Every structure is written in C-alpha cells, then in structure tokens.
C-alpha cells in the first residue's frame, strides 16, 4: 500500500471526488494559483482549471455563504478555510444557513457542502490562530463534525464527507499535514459516525481524536512497556454524531476511561463524552473519568508556554495512573 | 452615479398580465392585514413583519422573472412568496405553526420556503442571505444555464459586512444576480440618515463594486418591472449583477410588536396617499384596462381566497411531537442527548 502524507491523502480525496462528480468544486483563499496555503490543493488548478478550483478574496463569511447558496441548488462545494480560526467570521453562515436550512425549510432544501481546513495549536501562532472549534460546531444539530487523525482516515473520511448530503465540518490539523501513513489507492471510504479502535487493550479506555491520538498512542506504548498496562485507544474520528456504541463497549470492557483532547476543558468534547458515559454505564466504572485537555487559558505565543497546553504522553500517563489508583 | 430608468409611458406588459399584478398586490395586502388581526388574536406567534405598502416591489420584479429564475429574500417575506406563486393556504398554515405550512411549521413568518416555485427563503439574519444569492447565481453560471437569482433586502442590510463581501464577489465573477434593496427608509427604528454615511445607496451598493446601480420609485409597479427586466437581460447575457434601489414605504411597524413611534402620523398619511395599489388602480383605469366592477370583483376574490387560506390553516393539524427530530439531516438523524 502506498505511503503518503496526510495532505496528499486529502488531495487525493478531493481529486478523485471531483473526477467522478462535476458538481464538486473547491473554493477558498489561495487554493488555486498559490496551490494551497498548506499545499493541500497542490496541482488541482492545473488539473481542473479555474471553473472548479476557485480563489476567493479574503471574505470568509461571503464565500462560505456562496458555497451554501450553490449547495441549495444542487452543487456540492468544498469550502476551504485557511484555518478554522478564520471560520469564526463565517460562523453565522455555517450555523444559521448551512445547519438550519433543511430543518427550517421543512426538508425542502439540503446543503451538501464540506467546510474544511486546518486547526489546532500549530506552533507559536498565539491565540487568534490556534483555535480548536470542534466543540462549537459539534453542538449544532444539522452539522456533521469530522476530525481525521491519520492519512488513511483523512482520505476515506473526506471522500465520505464530499458524498454526504448534509453539511460537514471537516477539521484537519496543521501539525498532521506532513505525517505519513499507508493509504489505500482509489475507492477508499471511511464511514462517518464510526470510531476506530487504534490500539486494543483491556485495562483502560483512552478516548481521543485528531492530533491528540498520537500523544495518546505514545502514552499507551510506554504504559505497556513500563507498567504492563494495556490501554485501548478509541479514535472518535467523527464527533457529531458520536459513536457511543464503540465507546461504551470499550468502557464496559476496561471499566476505566480517560478522555484526551487538544481543546479547552470546559463545555468541550470531553465534557460531553463524559456525560454520555456516566449516564449510560455509571455502574461499570471503577473510577471517575479522567480528562486531559488544554489548559483553560488563551493559547500563548511562546513555545515554552504553548507546549504546556498540549496533551503530552506524560500527561496522559499521569491520568491513566489516576484512574487505576496507581500513585 | 445614480441612474434612473427611462420613463417610458407605454405599458410593460399586456392587459391581462397587468390586471393579474394588481390582483396579486391586493392579495398580498389582504393577506397581511388579516395576518395582523390573527397576530393580535395570538394565533400567529413570534415576530411577524408585514409587507403592506411595499407590494409593487415584489409583484413588479418577480412578475418579469422566468420560471427557472430564483427568488430569495429577508424576513419580511410573505409578499415575495405570494408574488412567486406560493399557495396562500401553505403560507397561512405556516404562520399558524401547522404541519401543512410551507415549512411544515418549522420556519414561521420569517422562514417561508417553496422549492417548487424557486422560492429560496425567507432569511432572518439581516444580510445573511445576500451571499446565498451570489452562490445560487454562481451555480447557474457553473452549469452554464440561463438562470438568474433576484435577492431582496432592506436598507438596514447594507450595513452588514457579508453583504459587501457578496457584492464584491458577484461583481468580480459576473454572477447573474439582481440585488434589490427595498429602501423603506427605516431599519427597524433607525432612519437611514442615522445609519448610512452616504445617502445615495447606489454608491454603496452599485458604484463601489462596478455594478450598474439604479434608484427608482419602488411604488411604481411598471417601473419596477421595466428596471428589473433590464437587469435580467444583463444577467442572462453574462454581464453580471445589477443593484437596484427601490424606494418604498412600509405602512406598518417593523414587526407586529413595533408601535412605530419614530414617525409622525402625517408622514404615514403622506405615504398612504401614494399607496402603490391605488396608484396602479388609477393608472389602469386611465388606460381603460380596468373598470370599477372588475376592481370590486378582485376585492371579493382576494378576500375569499384569504379567508379560505385561514380556514385551511385553522383546520390543519399541528405538527406531531416526533416532527421535532424530522428534517434535521438527510442521513438518519441521531440526537446527541
């Protein structure tokens, strides 16, 4: 199986879907002539031309709305935000127009659109450029929210997102773009709404997604080698709708859970997932759920500070020891 | 550079079409006045923004569109929906929150939709639908169809950022869209003089983006039609968007909960003397196209039609409780509870 980078996997997904369906087009800042701010769309203008790979002015609210309008009458736009931090100026379009349209029109209009782009603490970009907005979008009925952690998932999930008839918020991670992994060629679809067990284990369930998967897997390997603790790592992949079934099956097996995320702790994914676990299988838990999240402060510029915000393997290991009552 | 469409005296459409426009304006007025009463009786909830006084704008402009063209508007949407041919029964049922409403009781007054008629809403965040209109027009151009989108909004929307982003891209990409600003002089309670640094709106909406900009009397239904038709030809010819300011006046408050204390009785009386329905009635009579008997017949017909719509709405079932989870997504919906 070919080994390619996360950004190439995304490129393959878009290219393949645009080859099979003329209704699919890509629109965003610097996606065409510049070949993508993060080179995700590299070569696509040359391949598809300016009708289907469209550079926009710096007008996130405007071009998000144009994509939604085009979707209302049957096109299937991919709208790229250079980073999801910039989606904040387009959030009215995403929430009020993309997510609500089908409901508000009594099912008359569907919005088959993908909003995609990078996200997360990429390295010394400070508070404005380091947002993780998955919890904001995951709260909205009508949206699907997907965060792939590996090149294979990036390709398979993006293809599924483009084929979805509902609006999908597809959040990539800037730090993952160069990560390489095996990716099936051609028709490779990963279903939306299905979590993936990235490592099997029986002692504790580690629930995570996106970039945090990698610190979590590193922690799991160290726990096995150093402590003889076998952690099961659940990669959520889709956070709305949540694959509660896979989460609960694992928790019922291990009786302990740690949730690891790059986002803030309050009102976030970890809070929501904990609530669902507690209400479903409270009696199965042998310890309170532990959570590893970003510190509750704006994201600082200095790497010395920023690095302390991220969920590291050390922080995950400490949380696992906590739920196993091992000092 | 404010342009005014040339004042031709010859009729823009044949007699039957002109009479149907008059009747449509009367239907909208009757629908709105009855809606006001139903609102006062608490049969209609939420915010209800009535179109009385502005009928010539929707009827004259939608009247010249082709069947394949699209219509999108803001929250004061009853008039545009009816002008586009929405069944008054579906409209009234929506106001009463019934399952038979045009949006199945999920949208209400501000969110009318009718996919069959190419009526794409009903949008209640001021200015938010203006980019949608550009996107709808973009799709027509992408598919190489001869199809335009007409988009209505109020003078208040011109102060919203995404509106200008959309104007810029619509002009940059020569999208087949017609932007109609219904300048009724008051954005809720804020007069134009207190909200716009430049009072000639064709400068802010047209000239600034290299779009042809027209400013016309929006209460003259035939002038509205003629100006819109020119813009439509421009859109079909691939020449891009047009901005038209249609000056009009709303007879009622911003919404049903607004007593409109920001204007004088005299101002309102002056405006009512320019009632677009009576202006058109007088014109058609002068032209010999309309007599008193026909006008009275129209009055009776629209009265009956609206009462029938109310009867239908009253008799219709409320949505079932399970409907709360319906039409959220195309994929089978999983509530995250």
What is the total domain count of chain A? 2
Which class of chain B in CATH terms? Alpha Beta
- Which structural class best describes the helix and strand composition of chain B? alpha/beta
What is the string of SSEs of chain A from the N terminus onward?
EHEHEHEHHEHEHEEEEHEEHEHEHH
Structural class label of chain A? alpha/beta
Radius of gyration of chain B: 20 Å
**Most strands sheet of chain A:** 7 strands, mixed
**In percent, how much strand structure appears in the residues of chain B?**
5-15%
Structural key phrases:
heterodimer, A: 327 residues, alpha/beta, Rossmann fold, 2 domains, seven-stranded mixed sheet, 14 strands, B: 337 residues, six-stranded parallel sheet, disordered N terminus
Description of the molecule:
The complex is a heterodimer of chains A (327) and B (337). Chain A has helices spanning 6-20, 44-48, 60-72, 91-99, 101-104, 134-138, 151-163, 212-227, 244-254, 269-281, 303-309, 313-323, and strands at 3-5, 24-28, 53-55, 76-83, 114-118, 144-146, 168-171, 180-182, 196-199, 204-208, 231-235, 238-240, 257-260, 290-292. Chain A has 327 residues and is of the alpha/beta class. Chain A has two domains: 3-182, Rossmann fold, CATH 3.40.50.970; 196-323, 3-Layer(aba) Sandwich (Rossmann fold). In chain A, the strands form three sheets. Chain A has a seven-stranded mixed β-sheet, sandwiched between helices. Chain A has a five-stranded mixed β-sheet with strand order 9-11-10-13-14, sandwiched between helices. Chain A has a two-stranded antiparallel ribbon with strand order 1-8. In chain A, α7 links the parallel β6 and β7 (168-171). The relative contact order of chain A is 0.12. The mean pLDDT of chain A is 97. With 337 residues, chain B is α/β, with parallel strands linked by helices. Chain B has a single domain (15-313), classed as Rossmann fold. Chain B has helices at 15-40, 55-62, 78-83, 88-95, 129-142, 161-172, 192-195, 201-205, 221-236, 265-273, 276-286, 292-315; strands at residues 70-73, 119-122, 149-154, 177-183, 186-187, 190-191, 213-217, 242-247. Helices cover 42% and strands 11% of the residues of chain B. In chain B, α2 packs across α9 (221-236), α4 (88-95) packs across α12 (292-315) and α5 (129-142) packs parallel to α6. In chain B, the strands form two sheets. Chain B has a six-stranded parallel β-sheet with strand order 2-1-3-4-8-7, sandwiched between helices. In chain B, strands 5-6 form a two-stranded antiparallel ribbon. Chain B is built from twelve helices and eight strands. The chains are: A alpha/beta (327), B alpha/beta (337).
